[in-house]
Amino acid sequence: MSPPLDKRAPSLPPLHTVTLTVNGKETQLKLSPWTSLLDALREYMDLTGTKKGCDHGQCGACTVLLDGKRINSCMTLAIMQEGKQITTIEGLAPTPDELHPLQQAFIDHDAFQCGYCTPGQICSAVGMMNEGRVKTTADIRELMSGNICRCGAYTNIVDAIEEVINKQTA
Amino acid sequence: MTAIGKPISRVDGNEKVTGKAKYAAEFNVPDLTYGYVVSSAIAKGKITNIDASDALSLDGVLKVFTYKNRPKLAWFDISYKDQDAPPGSPFRPLQDETIKYSGQPIALVVAETFEVARYAASLVRIEYKEDTHETDLEANLHRAREPKSGIASLLKPPPPKPRGDFETAYQDASAKTNGRYVHAAEHHNPMELFASTVVYETDSKKKPKLTIYDKTQGVTNSILYVSQVFNIPFKNLRVVSPYMGGGFGAGLRPQYQLFMATMAALELKRSVRVTLTRQQMFTFGHRPATVQNVALGALPDGTMNALYHDAYGETSQFEDYTEVVVNWGGMLYPPENVTMDYKLVPLDVYSPLDMRAPGGVTGMAALEVAMDELAYELGMDPLELRLKNYSDLDNNEKRPYSSKELRECFRQGAERFGWSKRSFEPRSMKKDHNLIGWGMATGIWDSNMLGARAEAALLVNGKLWVSSATAEIGTGTYTIMTQIAADTLGMPIEDVLFKLGDTDFPIAPISGGSWTAATVGSAVQAVCEEVGKSLLKLAKKMPGSPFKSAKWEDIEFVDKHLRLKKDPSAAVSLMTLVNLNGGKAVRETSGVFADVMKQKNFTRSAHAAAFVEVMVDEELGTVKVTRAVSAIAGGRILNPKTARSQILGGMVWGISKALHEESALDHTFGRFMNHSLAEYHVSVNADIHDLDVIFVEEHDDVVNKLGVKGLGEIGIVGMPAAVANAIFHATGKRVRDLPITLDKLL
Ligand code: FES
Ligand code: FES
């Protein structure tokens, strides 16, 4: 809705060859310098498990892990992430036939409805657990608040995460 | 019955948690091109010039579509009418130079990549001649008029005629309340952005053949629209939507990305994807801003004798969107003197669109606050007032409900919540610097059943394949249909595969209005019974068959066997039977409609009682819903796990509506200014605390054979008023203006 930029169009900058390591696999892509990591995953690598809900860092649907840290993949450029270990929902489970404990807990607790925020919620929860800051249920609610679930599955999301944390610390 | 009624985990759960579930923008095909929409910067006027030369000069830009170079399209309005179109003249993207609302799509830039299309779109220069627009509902109430009626009026009846003499009764009442209730527009904002991926191919005669992956609550709706607008025969079209990242009503009409992507694919003879931005998610339907007046009167003992409810809803200049806002009080409560009225105010905005419990949650958010006010005028417990005026009749129609366990909702909900420990006086339940308040409200929603078709096939490998062109919008359709099919033929759910969201499957209505479980569920049950009847025929042909004289009523399906009810040892496996079918699957297709004769003497509704506790910080005015209980009378519960989730979702929506949601219009520009998820607030995880759901037992064989009422809306309806009433109880402040943000409490 913004008015057109009032300047002549510069010609497009050249494409760059970018090497990304996603779910343990290296892939070379030819990308614009301003292609987001999110678009690189979805449109160039067919890894559509990572979702786009806003493209502005406001919803968390695009959350992936960069060297184990959670990040909104719409808010970073693909070209900046060479050499990092990128983990998406497709690469979370130990083997293709297994589920990550959080994935199983989400199913068991019905922690989703439409499923669109779900990959982001699960990656975000993994990242949160890596941060090691969770002491209480209220902490989970607070630290998961960057991931909007419009279906309103929040209480089940918290139950699912809590179960996995409790099992790990037990 | 073994699967129905069990808390089975979603059968599509694995796909959803692994990222394998594919949504409309995720079907990647070779040589895909990308369209990016340019939106109008003004709210009303005309385009005087479009300069796309800069955009077109970029490498990789294929075309910029505007009203000037768009293809010739269908001429008559009727071609643009979808299954949820209100009376009027539907909006046509790229029709001409006229601007009807802010954010109107006015150009589509198509390029080889998304990045280039997006950049090029920013280079399209558009000049306008602006007209003065009107977007302010309150400033235009004097222009209110009767809504036009049309086919939509069938499911959305206008208010009944006044009965009795409201004026006199209200004057005579010993306790009365009179208030004006306002809420702003709201946007559905499902997490998934609206998108269509149109895959272009040609048939043997070189005519275009499209497969369209669309974000929609009904593939049938999309295919009808595309076929009519672009004049393409059905046989060359297929619309597919196996998953939808949230609907809430937003997908009940084909949105403009479908038009744009289809047009571009046909013109460029290429596959095209158009995805809207989050900002553009604010440029089609929304819940209309509404102003309501409610006046209630009661006799000293609390018996209501007078009820007045009017509503002014906004609509666009081109369609009359209506909803049922004011009728509910006349249904629920028994006063003899009732006046209800509903009017529309056309503004320079897009047509509003059904949004979760459309009209119901709007009207009940006012009426149930007014009930609370009346209780306080009477000095009576708010729950006591509801019970005093409890009615087993729909008082508008003067006919009974097919079932109404609302009294039980009140009882069980109040008990779980601890309502009896409530102190009546506002501001009487403090804890540190927090004011505690308890509020409650009633919810009601229609239980409708429409018509649908389904197909079922018992395959030679013993698996059951069932399909219907309905939608999975997060409601659990895959799961409950699998359960229904499994039970009807006595099979484990692992052996049943239910498919949906494809126009190759038998027709089903758009998924909304809480009618999918009833409608498609009945169709699935019926078609599985047809398969069962064919199996019985095969069983009769077996040599020495014990079923020779058996009728349909004499048999049952248990443990993958057909057997005699009287003599379970007379059984034959389904596998054996299907092998008697000459190597073919046993396949049936059939449809169902509501039993109108059986239903016509009853009103069919789901009911709810919502109880809410809030904590309000006295100095900061911040509100926290610390706990809430919803007791639901929703007929038979097919799956308590997914059902509970639907109600939890509704409760979260109710809290969000009461405290956060508001699409704020800047009337200078006629534009929604908070068009992002950072500024359009919805409840996040930290806003939601303890939520409790109770399903009370309710039997109903009038609504449909399955006895289900649908749960998509009933969870939200009572919640906003319960929150508002709890805030009054906590603070003594009666806020009639939603959302209740902290500035209204300071
Ligand atoms: S898509 Fe990245 S935060 Fe919303
Ligand atoms: S499951 Fe639909 S948005 Fe979270």
UniProtKB/TrEMBL annotation, chain B:
<dbReference type="InterPro" id="IPR046867">
    <property type="entry name" value="AldOxase/xan_DH_MoCoBD2"/>
</dbReference>
<protein>
    <submittedName>
        <fullName>Xanthine dehydrogenase family protein molybdopterin-binding subunit</fullName>
    </submittedName>
</protein>
<dbReference type="InterPro" id="IPR016208">
    <property type="entry name" value="Ald_Oxase/xanthine_DH-like"/>
</dbReference>
<dbReference type="GO" id="GO:0005506">
    <property type="term" value="F:iron ion binding"/>
</dbReference>
<dbReference type="Pfam" id="PF02738">
    <property type="entry name" value="MoCoBD_1"/>
</dbReference>
<dbReference type="Pfam" id="PF20256">
    <property type="entry name" value="MoCoBD_2"/>
</dbReference>
<feature type="domain" description="Aldehyde oxidase/xanthine dehydrogenase a/b hammerhead">
    <location>
        <begin position="18"/>
        <end position="132"/>
    </location>
</feature>
<dbReference type="InterPro" id="IPR008274">
    <property type="entry name" value="AldOxase/xan_DH_MoCoBD1"/>
</dbReference>
<dbReference type="InterPro" id="IPR037165">
    <property type="entry name" value="AldOxase/xan_DH_Mopterin-bd_sf"/>
</dbReference>
<dbReference type="InterPro" id="IPR036856">
    <property type="entry name" value="Ald_Oxase/Xan_DH_a/b_sf"/>
</dbReference>
<dbReference type="GO" id="GO:0016491">
    <property type="term" value="F:oxidoreductase activity"/>
</dbReference>
<dbReference type="InterPro" id="IPR000674">
    <property type="entry name" value="Ald_Oxase/Xan_DH_a/b"/>
</dbReference>
<dbReference type="Pfam" id="PF01315">
    <property type="entry name" value="Ald_Xan_dh_C"/>
</dbReference>
